[in-house]
Structure formats: C-alpha cells, structure tokens
C-alpha cells in the first residue's frame, strides 16, 4: 500500500472517530431536548412535584365575563397530553372564573375532574386566603373539589356551576394545586450546592495551602496527594454508602439535607484541593520572595499576595464543584433521599434534580418528565461553564493593566 | 568596635546539602557605602547576599555556619527575622511588582506592619516614589496595575517599595540585568542618590557598573572572597592574579 493511501486511510479513521463522537453527543442532547422540551414551561419550574390540597377562603362577588364565548373556549391552560376537555367551559359570575370538566389520564391514573380554565382580572379568587389568613394563589389549571362542604364528587359540570352560583358571602373552596413541577428539586439542589461548598471550600483551600506552602516535601505530602487522587477516582456510590453508614446511621442525621451535603462535600474535597494546589503552584516564587523581603509574615504573604493570584484557579474549582453537586445522583440517593419537597430544616430529606430525574424515570416510567428535568440540568451546567469563564477572567489579577 | 560597620561576617560557611557554596567568608560592610559583589556565575555572590536578610530560609537543605553580625548582633541567632527584613530590604533580579495597583505595591509593606492611616500612607507612597525617581511618571495612574509599567519602571517601583519600609540596608541582586541600557542608567543614577541615606549592597555581572557606582568591591570565586577592597584599587591595581584575570576578561 502506498504512503498516500495509508495517510488517507488514517485520516479517514480520524474524521470518522470525530464524527461519531460529535453525533453521539448531539443525538443525546437532541433526544433529551425533543423528549422533554414540551414539558418545560414556567409552571414546570415553579410548581411543586406533588399535588397539594388547600382550603381557600374567598369573598364572593359579581364579576361579569369580559371576553366573548369563543375566546373563553380557546383558553385551555391544562396539560393537553394528560388532560382532555370533556365539557364546558362555563363561566361562573360569583367567583369570576370559568370552570371546565376534563378527563385526566397518565401512566397510572385516570379520573375526571373540574378545573379552572379562566380567571377574570378582578375575580374574587385573586384575593383568596387560607385558614391562617395568609394570601394564596389560585391559578388556572387548579382543580376544584368542593365548596362550603358540598363535594363535587359525582356532579356534572352544570350541577357544579349551579352549586357555586347558589352560594354567596364567604366561600370555602377546596382546591388542589396541580403538581408535576420541580420547584422543590431546584431549591434542594441550590441548598445542596451551598451547604456542601460551605463545608468543602474552606477545608479544601486550607488543605491545599498546607500542601503547597507549609508541608516539607516528603512521604507525608506524597501520601496525602496520593490519597486525594485516589479519592477523586472513587465512584460516588462508594461515598454514598459511607455517607449512609456514617452520617445517616452512626451520626443519626437520618436521610437528610445535612447527610447529603456532607457526603457531597467529601466528594468535592479532592477536586478542590487538587485545583487549588495547581493554582497556588502557578504563583511565581518571586512574589513570595518579594513579599517576605518587605517584612511580611508568611501568613500575610499567603493571604495578601499568593491567594489573590490564585483566585481564578480557585473560582474554576468552585464552579467545577457546583457542576459536580448538580450532577451527583448516586451518593445523594442514599443520603438525601427521593422526597420531592423543599427541606424545612437541615435534617429533612429532599431530592435534587438528578435524583428526581432518576426517580421519575425509574419509579414512574415517565421518560418525558425525566428528560424535561434533564434539560434544566443541562442548561444549569452550560450556564455554570459560561460563568466560570467570565469570573476567572474578571478575577484574574494579571489581566488588569 | 567600629560603629560604622553595618555587616560583619566571621568564618561564614554555607552548604546546599553536601555542596559547600560559601567558604569561610570574612567581610566588613560599612554604613552608607555602596558595596559591589562581582564574580562569575555560581561563585556564591547571590547566595551571600541572600544570607544578609535570611532569604535562604526559604530554601530547604541550606545549612549555615559562622556568624553574620548586623549592628553587632548575630542574625542567625534568636532574632525577629521579620524585623530584620524590614531593616534590610531587597530588590531582585527580575522586577517582581505584585499584581496590584502601583499604590498598593508601595503601601503593601507598611500595611503589613500595621500602618492604617490613609494620609500617612498617601504621604509615604508619594515620598517613596519621589525618592525612586518614579513619581512624575506614575502620579496620574497610581490606581492602575503595576504590571502595566515598563520593565525599568517596574524595577524602580520595586526599589520604591523597599524604600517605603525605610530600611537601613538595601540589598540588590543584579537589579539591572533584565533591563535595557537607558533603564539601567536611570537605576544607577538612583543608586548614587540613595547612597547618602542607605547602605547599598549590589550583586552585578557588569564590571563597568561596579566600577561606576560602588565604593568597595568584593571579587568572589568558587565560594570564596578572593579580594575585597576600595573599588579603584580592585580595578586598577588588584593584588590577586585571579582578580586581575577576571576584570581584564581572561575568564568568567
């Protein structure tokens, strides 16, 4: 075989490999987006995952319909993949809202329900309060179940409309806030990021300072470095098992935010130590000498000269760590749990976005929802990467001229 | 004892591990004079200079024997090394301004010593920069990064930074080797004007420079001081054959 033929063969293999890599990447992201994008909207981001039943107290009024019947009919705010319109909508003046009957059907459930399809601007529903007097929102797509004790159970839509119209004065309405959102998961993820960084950052940075500035090179330092490298390579499920045995059981923190974040903090430590160390090593020796020659102490030198020079590297470490926490699932599954709720205290459980994606895909078989969560995760990771570039450029002391 | 003697070393030996870098150095350095160290690369002149404010502490495996008396006190004894370094400042071979503003670079040392008063710092910054002949060039950009200055300006900034500590001695380790001739001339002028206030010890590779600015010159070779005398004598009438060979350019 001639040399040119060989060259073009190798070249072909190189292009092929690149092409395969790219197309795999694109098809994964594409698959996630195509599957999930239909579910991503404002409600998805701001609603709880679980439906919530509340009793709303509303002062009834008389609000005429301000739009025509046709446009009222066109308002179908519910998720049309699970819900199909059966009857209505019918406008009810004393609550200033239109109601409709829809049938709800997903993988496991099938039922008929009365939902709010349209709310007038000055509807009394907008001034709803709960039993403690706190203002609550009632929005379109919320399910109505009873009014002043009369259950809508087997009623037709018209009967429900008549029942509501017959009531006056203060109305006590049982409404169900629709679930399916990931607000709690986003908040849990944020908590997790914050808590694990609060623990891991100081430990990691001080550890790296010890290794580069104080420790005499020798066996101990090499051992610490080796340990940190090994820790970075261990699969996170192992950390999860440790966290479960130690924080959850031995320390009796239960499956909770604190157990999860401490476990993740351990996972982050080697990442932070390594990258901070690298950042500190790149600070020229001349700065340390210059500072010491001016009569600064070692600590002053480290905190006033060396660390500021290393800030871009440390910022990158922080953002990498955030990415790691956002992406962590195995360890959190075992230590923070799968309960989709906003953790009330450090000791209550909560599920992050990745854990929630696992949960809905595995336990509920709802691939679309898992993909929708995937989109949110991907967007967060991309934003973090962009932010990391901007911040490390901004904080770079060598860039300012 | 002669009170004009700033540094007095007695039988100073220095080892890097097993390698002996300085061999029995005995030298008296006088106040408010410029003393120059010359010699080929690796002869120990920089090592000796770094002994004088204990910068060799930063290097592991350095062992020192003998005495270095600074104003009659052994600096390798139980002294406050921070205090020593405020009294014996140092300017390095490559300009090493910190990546901060020009102002912060000058104020860094005094701030580390606990000076907080803004007016006092402002005055000190102005005074130091003026003494270092840099004030007129940078007065409008004090808050700009020092890294934006030219090499020569950066080195004068480093000198100004050292002056701000009001030291008694300034050690200079080949301060002009990274600079062009014009910047070098400016620094040499500066050294002559600083001589009346400070004791200056300079390591240099340029014999012309040593001849131009120093009062006394020491010739180092293989870790030993071969000859230490008035500069004119070293350059016109050296007592040792090796000194003569070196300054006439026969080796080195």
TrEMBL record, chain A:
What cellular component GO annotations does this protein have?
plasma membrane
Print the keywords alphabetically.
Cell membrane, Membrane, Transmembrane, Transmembrane helix, Transport
Identify the domain of life. Answer: Bacteria
Q: What is its main location?
A: membrane
Report whether Signal shows up as a keyword of the record: no
The answer to whether the entry has keyword Cytoplasm is: no
Q: According to Swiss-Prot or TrEMBL, what is its membrane topology?
A: Multi-pass membrane protein
Name of this chain's protein: Phosphate transport system permease protein PstA
* Name of the gene: pstA
Automatic annotation (TrEMBL), chain B:
Cellular compartments annotated: Cell inner membrane
Return the Pfam families for the record: ABC_tran
Q: Does the keyword ATP-binding apply?
A: yes
Q: What is its main location?
A: membrane
Question: Which EC number(s) are documented for this chain?
Answer: 3.6.3.27
Keywords from the UniProt entry: ATP-binding, Cell membrane, Hydrolase, Membrane, Nucleotide-binding, Phosphate transport, Translocase, Transport
**Topology in the lipid bilayer:** Peripheral membrane protein
- Which GO cellular component terms are attached? plasma membrane
Q: Which GO terms describe its biological process?
A: phosphate ion transmembrane transport
In its keyword annotation, does this UniProt entry include Repeat?
A: no
SMART domains, per the entry: AAA
Pinpoint the ABC transporter domain residues. 7-247
Entry GO MF terms: ATP binding; ATP hydrolysis activity; phosphate transmembrane transporter activity
**Protein function:** Part of the ABC transporter complex PstSACB involved in phosphate import. Responsible for energy coupling to the transport system.
The protein's name is Phosphate ABC transporter ATP-binding protein
**Which taxonomic lineage does the organism of this UniProt entry have?**
Bacteria, Bacillati, Bacillota, Clostridia, Eubacteriales
Gene (name only): pstB3
């Amino acid at each position: 075989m001639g040399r040119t033929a060989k060259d073009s063969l190798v070249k072909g293999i190189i292009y092929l490999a690149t092409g395969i890599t790219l197309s795999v990447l694109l098809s994964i992201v594409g698959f996630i987006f195509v599957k999930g994008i239909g579910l991503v909207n404002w409600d998805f981001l701001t609603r709880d995952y679980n439906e919530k039943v509340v009793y709303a107290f509303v002062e009834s009024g008389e609000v005429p319909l301000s739009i025509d019947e046709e446009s009222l009919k066109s308002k179908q705010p519910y998720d049309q993949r699970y819900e199909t319109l059966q009857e209505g909508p019918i406008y009810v003046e004393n609550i200033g809202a239109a109601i409709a009957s829809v049938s709800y059907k997903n993988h496991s459930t099938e039922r008929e329900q009365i939902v709010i399809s349209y709310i007038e601007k000055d509807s009394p529903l907008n001034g709803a309060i709960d039993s403690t007097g706190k203002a609550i929102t009632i929005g379109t797509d919320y399910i109505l179940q009873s009014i002043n004790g009369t259950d809508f159970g087997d009623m037709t839509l018209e009967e429900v409309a008549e029942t509501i119209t017959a009531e006056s004065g203060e109305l006590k309405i049982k409404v169900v806030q629709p679930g399916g959102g990931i607000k709690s998961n986003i908040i849990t993820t944020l908590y997790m990021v914050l808590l694990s960084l609060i623990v891991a950052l100081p430990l990691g940075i001080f550890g790296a300072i010890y290794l580069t500035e104080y420790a005499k090179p020798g066996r101990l330092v090499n051992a610490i470095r080796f340990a940190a490298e090994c820790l970075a390579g261990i699969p996170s499920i192992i950390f999860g098992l440790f966290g479960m045995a130690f924080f959850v059981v031995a320390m009796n923190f239960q499956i909770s935010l604190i157990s999860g974040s401490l476990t993740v903090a351990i996972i982050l430590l080697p990442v932070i130590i390594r990258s901070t160390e690298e950042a500190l090593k790149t600070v020229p020796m001349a700065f340390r000498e210059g500072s010491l020659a001016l009569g600064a102490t070692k600590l002053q030198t480290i905190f006033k000269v060396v660390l500021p020079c290393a800030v871009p590297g440390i910022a990158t470490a922080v953002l990498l760590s955030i990415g790691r926490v956002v992406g962590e699932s195995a360890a959190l599954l075992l230590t923070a749990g799968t309960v989709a709720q906003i953790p009330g205290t450090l000791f209550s459980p909560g599920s992050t976005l990745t854990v929630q994606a696992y949960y809905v895909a595995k336990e509920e078989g709802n691939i679309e929802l898992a993909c929708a969560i995937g989109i949110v995760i991907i967007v967060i990771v991309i934003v973090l990467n962009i932010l990391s570039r901007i911040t490390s450029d901004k904080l770079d002391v060598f860039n300012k001229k | 004892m002669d009170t004009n003697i700033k540094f007095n070393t007695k039988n100073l030996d220095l080892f890097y591990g097993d390698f002996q870098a300085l061999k029995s150095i005995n030298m008296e350095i006088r106040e408010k004079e410029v003393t120059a160290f010359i010699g080929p690369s690796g002869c120990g002149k920089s090592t000796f200079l770094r002994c004088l404010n204990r910068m060799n502490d930063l290097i592991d495996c350095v062992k020192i024997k003998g005495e270095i008396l600074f104003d009659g006190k052994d600096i390798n004894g139980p002294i406050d090394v921070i205090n020593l370094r405020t009294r014996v400042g140092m300017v390095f071979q490559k300009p090493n301004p910190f990546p901060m503003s020009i102002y912060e670079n000058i104020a860094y040392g005094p701030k580390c010593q606990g000076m907080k008063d803004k007016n006092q710092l402002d005055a000190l910054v102005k005074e130091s920069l003026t003494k270092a002949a840099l004030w007129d060039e940078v007065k409008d950009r004090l808050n700009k990064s020092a890294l934006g200055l030219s090499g020569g300006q950066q080195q004068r900034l480093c000198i100004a930074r050292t002056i701000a500590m009001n030291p008694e001695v300034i050690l200079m380790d080949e301060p002009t080797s990274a600079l062009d001739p014009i910047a070098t001339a400016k620094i040499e002028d500066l050294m002559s004007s600083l001589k009346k206030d400070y004791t200056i010890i300079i390591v240099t590779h340029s014999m012309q420079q040593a001849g131009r600015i120093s009062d006394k010159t020491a010739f180092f070779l293989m870790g030993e001081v071969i000859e230490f005398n008035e500069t004119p004598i070293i350059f016109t009438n050296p007592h040792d054959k090796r000194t003569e060979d070196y300054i006439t350019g026969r080796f080195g």
